[in-house]
Amino acid sequence: MKILTVLTYYRPHTSGLTIYAERLAKALVKRGHEVTVMTTQFDDDLPREEMMDGVRVIRVPVAFRVSKGVIAPTFGLVATKLVFEHDVVQLHLPQFDAPGVAFRARLFGKPAVLTYHCDLNLPTGFFNKIVNSIVNFQNNMAGILANRIVTYTQDYADHSPYLSRYQKKLRTFLPPVELPNPGNEAITAFAAAHKISERNPVIGMATRFAAEKGVGILLDAMPQILEKHPNAQVLFAGQYQNVFSEQDYADRLMPRIKEYEESGNWTFLGILNPAEMAAFYPALDALVVPSLNATEAFGLVQIEAMLNNVPCVASALPGVRQPVLMHEMGEVAAIGSANELADGLLKIFADKEKYRCDTAALAETYDPDSVAATYEKMFNELRGE
C-alpha cells in the first residue's frame, strides 16, 4: 500500500506530534508499505527531499511564518500530485493545509484519515485570535471531508469541542511509543554526569519551555518539595531557549530558575536525541506533566517514563490524566495547582515501590508495530479490502 502522510512539521523538528508521526511512518514501512511524508521546509538548510529510515520525506518551501505555523504557497500543487500517486492519505492535525489535501483525496477517490493530536490554543492577542479561528475553520473543513478521525483517548474526545462534532467518524488508538535500549554504561554515565547519587530525588520534565506546558507550576511547587527534600533536582529535557512566542514567559520565570540552577536544584539539558532520552528516564524518581490546556492531549513522555518504571504526576486535563489512571503509575494533580503537584511528588518519593508496573506488557500495548497494524486494518477497510 502507498501511504501519504501529511503534516506541517516533521523531523528534525521535535514535538509529540512529530515523534508520533515518525514512529508510525517507520512502523508502516517495516510492515511492507511505501510511506511518503509531505511536510514543510521549515528550515532552509533541510533538503527538499530525502529518505529517512525507509520513509520518503518531501519538504515544500516556506514563504513566511504566521504565529506558530507557516505558509507554503506550493503546498497544494505538490499535494495534488502526491495524493493522486498514493492509495491512502493520512493527515496529522492541527494543520492549516489539511482541508485542501482532504479535498484532493475525495476528488481522486482516496480514503483520508485524520489523526487529531490536540486542540489549538495560541497565546493571547488579537492576531493569534484570528489565526486560531482560521485554523479551527480549516480543521473543521478537513473533518467534514475525512473518512475517519483518530485520536488517543475517548476521555480527550469527549471534552474536545472539535472531536465532539465527529463522533461517528471517530476511532481511538493509543499512540506508538518506543525507546532504544541505552545500555548500562550510558545510564551510569548519565547518572554520574548529573550527580544523581548526591542530588536526589530527581524530578524530570520533558517538553519545550512554554506557558501551556506548566513550567511555572513546577517552579511554584519547588519550595514545598525542597522543604522536605533539600537535595532534590529538576532535570529539564527539551528546548528552553528561543522558543517561538515564549520569550516573555521565559523572561518572567528565568530569574527564579537561575537561583535553583546555582544551588544545584535545576538543570537544563536541552533537546536530547532518542538514545539520550533513553538514558534520561532511568535517572528519574518521577516525571511531571503539569500542562494547562487542551494543546496537550496525552503526553507521550508519560509512557516513555513508565516503560522505565518511573511514575508520573500529571495534570487532570482530559487525556493527559489517562496514562496515570489507566496504568496506576503516579498521581493526578488539579490543573494549575502547584500544591497538588508538590503533594503528588512527595507521595511518590515516600513510597516508590507502590508505583511499579509490568513494563513488558506496557511496551506491548504501545508497540509501534501494533499501532501500525491497527491503522493498516482501518486503511484496508476504507479501501474495501
Number of helices: 14
Please identify the top-level CATH class of the largest domain.
Alpha Beta
How far apart the termini lie comes to: 11 Å
**CATH fourth-tier homologous superfamily of the largest domain:** Glycogen Phosphorylase B
Shape descriptor? globular
List the uncertain runs: none
Instruction: Report Rg.
Output: 21 Å
Report the CATH topology name of the largest domain: Rossmann fold
Largest sheet report: 8 strands, mixed
Question: How many DSSP-defined strands?
Answer: 16
Strand order of the largest sheet: 3-4-2-1-7-8-9-10
CATH architecture of the largest domain: 3-Layer(aba) Sandwich
Taking all residues together, what is the mean pLDDT? 93
Describe the structure.
The protein has 385 residues and is an alpha/beta fold. It has two domains: 2-176 and 367-382, Rossmann fold (3-Layer(aba) Sandwich); 184-364, 3-Layer(aba) Sandwich (Rossmann fold), CATH 3.40.50.2000. The chain has helices at 16-30, 75-85, 98-107, 126-145, 154-159, 184-193, 215-228, 247-262, 274-280, 300-306, 322-327, 338-350, 359-365, 368-382, and strands spanning 2-6, 34-41, 49-52, 55-61, 64-66, 69-71, 88-93, 112-116, 148-151, 170-172, 202-206, 233-237, 266-270, 286-289, 312-315, 330-333. 41% of the residues lie in helices and 19% in strands. Strand 11 (202-206), helix 7 and strand 12 form a beta-alpha-beta unit. Helix 2 (75-85) packs parallel to helix 3 (98-107) and helix 3 packs parallel to helix 4 (126-145).
